[in-house]
Amino acid sequence: MASGMAAGPSQGRLAGHTAIVTGAASGIGRAIAIRFAAEGAFVLGCDLGREPRGGGPATDDVIRAGGGAGELVIADVSRWEDVAGLVARVADAHGRLDIMVNNAAIGEGGRLTETSEEVYDRVMAVNLKGVFLGCKAAALQMLGQEPREHAGQREVRGRIVNISSQHGMISSPGHLAYGVSKAGVVYMTRQIAADYARDGIVCNAVAPGKILTDMGGFVPTEAQLAYSRSRTPWPRLGLADDVASAVLFLASPEATYITGENLMVDGGWMAS
Ligand code: NAD
Q1: 104 CA closest ligand 1 atom index
Q2: What pTM value is reported for the model?
Q3: Does residue 128 register a pLDDT over 50?
Q4: Residue 215 Cα, ligand 1 centroid: separation in angstroms?
Q5: If you measure from the C-alpha of residue 147 to the centroid of ligand 1, how many angstroms do you get, rounded to a whole number?
Q6: pLDDT in tens, 186-228
Q7: In the structure, what pLDDT confidence band is assigned to residue 6 with cuts at 50, 70 and 90?
Q8: What is the mean pLDDT of the chain?
Q9: Ligand 1 center to 30 CA (angstroms)
């Protein structure tokens, strides 16, 4: 076993758990991976490269510097071999996969008439097929493992958390393919939750509102930030850690009898 595959700390809300987080080099995925590791999970992150977009040490270096256990490897979520390889890597080293977080996404595209077939296909390949592949690879592993014990019950074989968006429920201005892909993620989450509840697989989504990351190298303009502020009742925009807290809850044994949910972390955007 490589040193990066060591078990996580024995204390924390995810002590003894194993997790995969896709798109973990930067932004929200990085925050989730670091948070999970701080709560005792072993975390295998994946991304297209190791460098965080905002600079600084790679995610697994941050995890290990904090006393946690994790690894960040290169994998493309739109490729079955890559995604299945991530699950096999965790299962081979730790015997089980407890948590799958499908976070990786891209934000390309325009309105309908400005969206080329090529861009549409690329967005769907990462944002929707990537989530399908992540859910499928995780579920295949989870079905073959015993449920974990929690509070005297043995109910949950594994937990999947998909990152959706408020866009997809309402229009994503100028981003048709992105919005369609996110609507698909919410539907897929519900379908998987219903189909696999009796197998002990929990599947939920977290829908961020406007979160201050430099998504896809895309730095929002002042006008775009002003639009987001005008839509967000809470007096600030979101941070990656706001999303990580919600994902942590749904990934933890504290989230009981909750499946098929799409939890908004949007400062009230969708409520207003
Ligand atoms: P980000 O671009 O900072 O992070 C996404 C990560 O995914 C990047 O590190 C990127 O390299 C990686 N990635 C892209 N394609 C990949 C692939 N094929 N395989 C593996 N990794 C790949 O974006 P973010 O803001 O952190 O967004 C994370 C998630 O949150 C996404 O699903 C996004 O749609 C969602 N979201 C973000 C916001 C926001 O305001 N930032 C709002 C709603 C939803």
Answers
A1: 7
A2: 0.97
A3: yes
A4: 6
A5: 30
A6: 999 999 999 999 999 999 999 999 999 877 767 788 998 999 9
A7: confident
A8: 95
A9: 10
Q: Return the ligand 1 atom nearest residue 215 CA.
A: 2
* Minimum-distance ligand 1 atom for the alpha carbon of 49: 11
How confident is the model over 28-82, as pLDDT tens digits?
A: 999 999 999 999 999 999 999 999 998 999 999 999 999 999 999 999 999 999 9
Helix H, strand E, coil C: the string for the chain is CCHHHCCCCCCCCCCCCEEEEECCCCHHHHHHHHHHHHCCCEEEEEECCCCCCCCCCCHHHHHHHCCCEEEEEECCCCCHHHHHHHHHHHHHHHCCCCEEEECCCCCCCCCHHHCCHHHHHHHHHHHHHHHHHHHHHHHHHHHCCCCEEECCEEEECEEEEEECCCECCECCCCCHHHHHHHHHHHHHHHHHHHHHHHHCEEEEEEEECCECCCHHHCCCCHHHHHHHHHHCCCCCCECHHHHHHHHHHHHCCCCCCCCCCEEEECCCHHHC
List the catalytic residues.
Answer: 178
